[in-house]
Amino acid sequence: MMMRALLLPCVLLLSACSAEIAIQTEPFDQVVPITSLLEPVYAEVALDLPEESVNTQNLDIIVNEVSASLVVVNPSSTLTLRTSARLSLTGSATPDNPRLYTDLNRPAYYDTAAEILAERDFPPVSRTPVRIESQALQRAIGRRRVWVIVSNTVVRSGLTLPQLPARIVLEDIVFQALLTKPFPGLGGALEAGGL
Amino acid sequence: MKPPPLAACVLAALLSPSLAAADADGVRTNTARLLTTDAAEAIDAPVLGLQRTALPLFAGLAVDTSLYANALLAPNLGLRWALAAGPHRFVLGARYTHFVGASVYSDVVTSEADTPALQRFEPELSGPSFYGVYGLALGRLLVQGEARYGHYTSDYLSFTGAVAFNFAGHWSVVGEAGVRVKGGATLRAAAGLRYGGEHFGLGLGASYVDMSDPALPGERLPVLPVLDLSWSFR
Predict the structure, then answer these.
(1) Which of A42, A79, A121, B21 is the most buried (most CB within 10 A)?
(2) Is the model more confident about B63 or about B19?
(3) Is B214's Cβ below 8 Å from some Cβ in A?
(4) Into how many domains does chain A fold?
């Protein structure tokens, strides 16, 4: 941290104007157990964003691109998974402790969360890469922690009886952002350098 | 006898010829730089300096570059015109800077960063800048005003007044004060010394920059040192 405290001003001496910043959270997986048919199960996962995207108050930050990607894996041979995702700016999950809930104990903030992935079906035994580029994702910029709430409903398919509990896996969940951050307050560095 | 310390020798070498010269010809910096602003002065000889390296061409024109910026991977090239008419000094200059070190800086920052999430951090500093100076040379006193505009990713605009007084030999004391209309804290100021000898030139001082930015959490840089060394080929 010390090293960084020294380094950042040095770099910014020159970058007295702006910097293009690309951030990408580390990929993580989330397992969602399915305990009943036709009833949605919600998995709320916390996503901590790097501080480079957080300290953006009072800055005319330009958000060039925000996206999230993940692979939806449905290992079941009989169940079709119906999934949607929302981005919430409040939540109770932590990165170590995701929260699972159903319609019975669904928190009120679910209704105010912005939909980032419209409901779609994932067939049995499938791996589907999903890329989310919803405008709503931009709300995450400037936040230290955001929550993604994935709603999962399984619908029976085929004639065999489903084996419950089943599970679906969300793999390699990654949040990416490309920002241009101006540093309008650092003109003094140019003056001392002769520019 | 104990030999005098090196510093004393250097100081003596700097002072003695200049103090001996009774008729000092006013403020001279060699590089036409005060501390953080351009000096209302014609560049009369090729000069190799940190803040400015310049090659005079003809009719008051010179090409110049900032070695500091070049060393920090921001190659820059400028054209400067200066005219002395009686006590009046006029300067017009333009410069283009093209930053090439984005990936180098990015690698350093991301390797030092606490968060592996930071993939790239690429500073941008490319664009033209323009400046104009008017100065009045009254014997040992130089009074001047500078306007400077830079069009980088964000704009920079400042107006700065400066006074320099040639108090002994080739030594001058310099004070600058002004406003930044764009590009940082409103008030700017600097104070220090300039030495413009036959060959050697020196600028030493401090500038009030008050650099603070929400991007620097907890960081605040009120004052930057100013150091300029130069060598003139007369």
Answers:
(1) A79
(2) B63
(3) yes
(4) 1
